[in-house]
Design goal:
Order of helices and strands: EHEHEHEHEHHEHEEHEHEEH
CATH superfamily of the largest domain: NAD(P)-binding Rossmann-like Domain
CATH topology of the largest domain: Rossmann fold
CATH class of the largest domain: Alpha Beta
Shape: elongated
Distance between the termini: 31 Å
Number of strands: 11
Strand content: 5-15%
Length: about 325
Amino acid sequence: MTVAVLPGSMKPLLAPHLPDWLDARFFDDADELLALAPEAEIGWLDYYVNGSTATIEAVKRAEKLRWLVTIGAGVDYLPLDVLLARGVMITNGTGLSAAPIAEYVLMAMLAFTKDYRAVMRMQDRREWLNDSPGKRQLAGSRALVIGYGAIGREVARRLRAFDVEVQAVTRSGGKGLLHPDEWRAHLGRFDWVILSAPATADTRHMIGTAELAAMKADAVLVNVARGTLVDQQALTEALAAMRIGGAILDVTDPEPLPATDPLWELDNVHITMHLSGRSQDTVYARAAERLLANLEAYRAGDPPQPLYDRVRGY
């Protein structure tokens, strides 16, 4: 029997469909997770109550682990050195949250263009506005989407439906696409710079002082990737000095963002607390379906998908 350690929250979705060759052991809290982890050959060790601390410790204890499942698109929080040294396969949640994240991006951009936050504040005060506080529109604007995976493609598809001209950046480049060494020269063309790239050594602080200076004076930075992609100190300074139009930050560095951080006080910043991927009710069902399909592949000796690539870093 192959031992699989799985979240108890997923039991209703998984238990009726698991194959008979699998010895499924479900955990409901961090103590159970840490106790079960050492026997796992397959481990879905994400623990959603206390964040990633228990998950990281469980991964370190899981010395029999051959395949690690995670629901997150990014795996940068995991002890990758330990996993890769042991030859563990890692599958992530790429694509599971692409649609809701793209919807969140569109919502945030629309809210920014019309300054909908100010409208809601007036409603709270019961004050009647005679004019819209926001005058921008998406139609006719230009967006640079850096990172054209599942999320980037979904964002671009929705923006194009709103008559936004989209230019995408991918690692491999290609017809109509920009390569990672090309996009900086074009920054001044875009009204929106949207980050949906993975967090790797190459993407760390890819937006810094020079990039912010190259952006249009009214351009808006949108980050739904990881906070580490942006030099946050440089961004804070640029926003405070109004050198760019604003920022929509679903992610920050660190998280949670400390209450004393000056970003909270800036009127041209919308902070959405890493909620974009959580704005749905289907991700767990889709993750369960993916796991069940991958179990068949694993049993047949084929690699589960989507598989983490240690060379690319995602």
